[in-house]
Every structure is written in C-alpha cells, then in structure tokens.
Amino acid sequence: MNAKRILTLRVNGSERHVAAEPNAILLDVLREQLDLTGTKRGCDMGTCGCCTVMIDGEARLSCLTLAASAAGHEVTTVEGVTPAGGMSPLQKAFCEVGGSQCGFCTPGFIMTATALLDHVPDPTEHEIKEAISGNMCRCTGYVKIVEAIQRAGHEMRVERVPADPTEKEVLS
C-alpha cells in the first residue's frame, strides 16, 4: 500500500495542498480533490486531449502526468483561463463560430489553443492544425475549431495594439 503524501500545487494562481498517493495522476487530483471539473476524462491513454491543462505555459495531458511532478510548477486549467464575469477571446470565438458542439472536448481544445496563442500570436492554419493534432472531437470536422482559433488570435492581437503609435510594440 502506498502512503499518501501532501503535495503543494500551484493551480490557477493559487497554492493548494492535497494528499495524494505517489501514483496519483494530475487529472484525478484536479477533478476529485480540487473540484476543477472542466478538465475532462476521455481516453485515459493520452490520445484524445480532453484532459489538456497547461503546466508552466505548455499544453500537457493531465491523464499522463503524475500529480507529484506538477509540484513546484504553475498548473492552469480551463477554469484558470476564464476571466471573472466573462469569457476569454478564445472561448468567445468558439461560441461565435460554432467551434464546439457537444462541448466535451472543448476544454482540451481551449487549453491547447491558449498555449499555442501564448507562444505564436499569429499562427498559420498549418500551425493550428499541428498544435491541435492531439485533440479529438467526434462532433465537428475541425474547420470551425481552426476558424475559432484564428479569430481569437486576431482579436487578441488587436487588443495588444498600443494606443500610442510611438510605443515600440509592433504586431507581426
């Protein structure tokens, strides 16, 4: 029998303490102990992307990540990218263009796309398709998902445009 140990996780900007067995996966800790149920359990094999979270800004599959390995790192779930009282530009774009249908896979796509847009503000269609290649959707043909990510990227770039044209930040 494995003894539980106390882990200190930084999740969505807050330090959280959980008791977990050494083989506990991050997905279970997020859902069952921290009540962050936006992260979905899909295949449990790392093939569907429903459980995608970000760890230190990188998209990771929480069903394949030991909870203990997340200690000392910033874990962001879909709840953590949703601003208070609203939706992120990416979430809005998914709604506006019909990027989700049943919605089960949407949190994983949101997290994968958030990581992509954080690193590549103006991704090509090819870069988007490559980034989301680990996420599966059984309801859509991915066209609307790609369109939503492109739209959100554009919206986010427009928001970043400096108000003063003499500022040095330049959009590509």
Question: Can you give me a brief rundown of this structure?
Answer:
This protein is of the alpha+beta class and 172 residues long.
**Low-pLDDT windows of residues:** none
The level-1 CATH class of the largest domain? Alpha Beta
CATH architecture of the largest domain: Roll
Percent helix among the residues?
25-40%
> Could you state the CATH homologous superfamily of the largest domain?
Beta-grasp domain
Name the strands of the widest sheet in spatial order: 2-1-5-3-4
Proportion of beta-strand residues = 5-15%
Explain what the structure shows.
- With 172 residues, the protein is α+β, with helices and mostly antiparallel strands.
- It folds into two domains: 77 residues, Ubiquitin-like (UB roll); 72 residues, Orthogonal Bundle (DNA polymerase, domain 1).
- The chain contains six helices and five strands.
- It has a five-stranded mixed beta sheet, with helices on both faces.
- A hairpin with a 2-residue loop joins strand 3 and strand 4.
- Helix 3 packs across helix 6.
- The longest helix is centred in the last third of the chain and has 18 residues.
- The protein is globular.
- The mean pLDDT is 92.
